[in-house]
Amino acid sequence: MSGAILSRPGRVALSPRLLAGILLVLLALVPAALRLLLGGVDPLEQDLMALNLPPGDGHPLGTDHLGRDVLARLSAGTALTLGTGAGGALLAAGLGGALGLLALSLGGVVRGVAFAAFDLLRVLPGVLLALLTAVALGQGGGPVMLALGLSFAPLFAEVARATHEREMAADYVAAARVFGLGRLAVLARHVLPNLAGPMVTLFAIVLPRCIVTESVLSFLGLGVSPDQPSWGRMIADASGYAEDAPHAVLAPMLALSALTLGLSLLGEHARRRFDPLARERRP
Amino acid sequence: MSPPLLHVSALSIGFPGAAPLVQPLGFSLARGEVLGLVGESGSGKSLTASALIGLLPEGMAATGLAVFEGRDLISLPARDWRRLRGRRIAMVFQDPMAALNPFMTIDAQLHEALRTHRPLRGAALATAGASLLREVGLDPALGARHPHTLSGGQQQRAVIALALSGDPCLLLADEPTTALDTLVQAQILSLLRQLTQQRGLAMLFISHDLAVVARVADQVGILRRGELLEIGPTADMLSAPKHAYSQALVAACRDLTAWEAHKPVAAPPALRVRGLSVTYRAGLLRQPRAAVHDVALEIPRGGVLSLVGASGGGKSSIARALVGLAEAQASVAEVDGAALPLGIAGRRQQVAQKIQIVFQNPNASLNPRASVAQVLAEALARHGLPRPERDRRAAAALEEVGLGAEHLPRRPHELSGGQKQRVAIARALLAGPSLLICDEILSALDATVQRQILALLRRLRQERGLALLFIGHDLKVVRSLGGDVAVIEAGRIVEQGPAETVLAAPRHAFTQRLVAAALPVAAAPAVASPPTLAHA
């Protein structure tokens, strides 16, 4: 057990893992921050006289096979990568959590059908889902987010179901129902407060997975349109020239690794903070 | 008297560097002798047993001396423990289902245990297993079954057989009957007593219940907050306890204040049900299972009715049905003369709110996240009162159960077990009940706290004219409540009438068994003589 669990709320003990997480995420965001503050060159501008240049004058991270500035593309791609991933995770939480809870409180056939659908979604590979959404809605950020949302929603629905079942079996819920409180009141008073912690935790765990998945989809060409610089796209584009210009592959790879590792560490911290065993101990 | 088998002196247990959890204590135990350790939860009785079998929780250490067969157990290296544990010293735990492997038959577990202790094979192994099962009063044919197909009492007998497999001479029994109902408890206690006599076992028997300990022990030690207050022969301890706490404990076990007789009032009864049946549906295709058949109950205003019976008999099903938590049908269901809607939807009607319930386990019936104020507000939620009024009523209800308004912002884990149960009662009172169902509300509480809660119920009945449906297994309490008693067996009422009459002269065979199994705390020296217990 780390010190963080025993700390009082509002006073977060800075464990080495938490510090590492924060630093890694900040590091991954440095290019985007620099671009915001100082401005930068156009990430789409091609300089055919400067293909696959190593890091150096004018191009701090070099150029890629089309002579585009890697740093510019990296910083411009941050928002897209993070945004699509976060959007997908949010959508998953919304779909899984809200629809799951709705189905649970309606009960009966609705519940059975809804959870059968969630199970069906879970067995479909994410790539297949992305292919389907891309075919149906075309390429772009929206379809990718939808694919991410759909493939991660079952996780949130399962967590909602587990919490719901545990709470509904509790004596204090029986007591509430004896006082004539309806399903919705019980849901709001007893289930939701106990669900918030696990949901936040799961979100923190799913977010980095969504970001990686988005990059994988972009790498496979199922992601956002090719002219938009997402990190996955950058890795895909530059991987053909890895021998001539390793920097063009390494830069987005390292950024992606730092961001997801950092977010995972933060997610782990969130999980510990909301751990039901730790919760009892906090005043 | 034979020389002591186990001599403990200055045994102290705790985390090194911190205040000890068990302060230096000592006792000695001879073969054929039973020492009972009694104490409330957290008094250190289980830690003492753990130290004597070398299984203290991680990080804890014991100091002092515990000489067993010439060796000191406290300083025994782990290697030597493996030769001692299970062979010379064995343990019986509280929850038999947790002590048995659910995936193995009783025979398989017993044979495995026997083989680790003795070089037995084939027929000899089977014979040894069967004779152990016979010794603990189990039909050897049951050995082929898996634990979950056995009753709680049979499971505990199997655990005892396992404990005996290494032919130990010291048996540590940690609350071995707490998970069992009264009838089965009496059987297990008599078995344990019998085994100590026949095998010349020494037994350390741990329980929170003095009445249980008095039934088996030759000596009783009373522990409180890690301190052994006094120790002595059972008869002396019961007749002349020296320490004030021991006196309170003995008193809590024995002379409960009898409640005032109910004065008949010219008012419709608080509860009248006829033909009450409770069924549980297991699934669409399964046959619904009836837990309660055709039960008739009547409780006058301000009256008391006690429901007694073995666990699984349907007592709690009746309670849950009356507050809409179980599906039920009845030909007549009235509260204060008005029709009582059954089912959970009916709880929205004001008339249904006149029946309230308090559950067995106060830890489970209060949401750990909610403050006492929020817990109490729930009873008033349906009225939509303004906040000051809600707070005023909540504070008044707390005061009525003997707690102050300073408890309002606290959370359940900041309260003691008794305080939590008081909050649960206050919550029920806020709905303005005329009948309060007490579903085993004393079972999770220590003896001295039980008394306080009983005193509270008694006052509420006098001040509010509250009628009580009391569900419990402690006939001593039932007797003190007076009023009526209904005896439930397998979902049917087999005997009903004034508590005094029914318990003094039970007519039905099941009631007779219940009464025989109850544990009177007698100061008579009968405890030292060979056991004369009912073999129900």
TrEMBL record, chain A:
Q: Where is the ABC transmembrane type-1 domain?
A: 78-267
Q: What CDD domains does the entry give?
A: TM_PBP2 (cd06261)
Query: What is the membrane topology here?
Result: Multi-pass membrane protein
Q: From the Swiss-Prot or TrEMBL record, state where the protein is found.
A: Cell membrane
InterPro entries of this UniProt entry?
A: BP-dependent_transpt_permease, MetI-like, MetI-like_sf
- Keyword Calcium assigned to the entry: answer is no
| One GO-annotated biological process of the protein | transmembrane transport
Entry keyword Transport: yes
Protein family per UniProt: Belongs to the binding-protein-dependent transport system permease family.
Entry protein name:
ABC transmembrane type-1 domain-containing protein
- Origin organism of this chain? Teichococcus deserti
TrEMBL record, chain B:
UniProt entry keywords in alphabetical sequence: ATP-binding, Nucleotide-binding, Transport
Question: What are its GO biological-process terms?
Answer: peptide transport; transmembrane transport
Question: Signal sequence: where?
Answer: none
Topology with respect to the bilayer: Peripheral membrane protein
InterPro entries noted in UniProt: AAA+_ATPase (IPR003593), ABC_transp_ATP-bind (IPR050319), ABC_transporter-like_ATP-bd (IPR003439), ABC_transporter-like_CS (IPR017871), Oligopep_ABC_C (IPR013563), P-loop_NTPase (IPR027417)
Q: Where this protein primarily resides, as one coarse class?
A: membrane
Q: What's one GO-annotated cellular component?
A: plasma membrane
Q: Where is the ABC transporter domain?
A: 6-250, 273-515
Q: Where in the cell is it found?
A: Cell inner membrane
Q: Does the keyword Transcription regulation apply?
A: no
The record's section on SMART domains has: AAA
**Gene3D superfamilies attached to this UniProt entry:** P-loop containing nucleotide triphosphate hydrolases (3.40.50.300)
In terms of superkingdom, the source organism counts as Bacteria
Q: PROSITE patterns in the record, alphabetically?
A: ABC_TRANSPORTER_1, ABC_TRANSPORTER_2
GO molecular function terms listed in the Swiss-Prot or TrEMBL record: ATP binding; ATP hydrolysis activity
Please report which protein family the annotation says this sequence is part of.
Answer: Belongs to the ABC transporter superfamily.
**PANTHER family on file:** D,D-DIPEPTIDE TRANSPORT ATP-BINDING PROTEIN DDPF-RELATED, TRANSPORT ATP-BINDING PROTEIN
**Which named protein is this?**
ABC transporter domain-containing protein
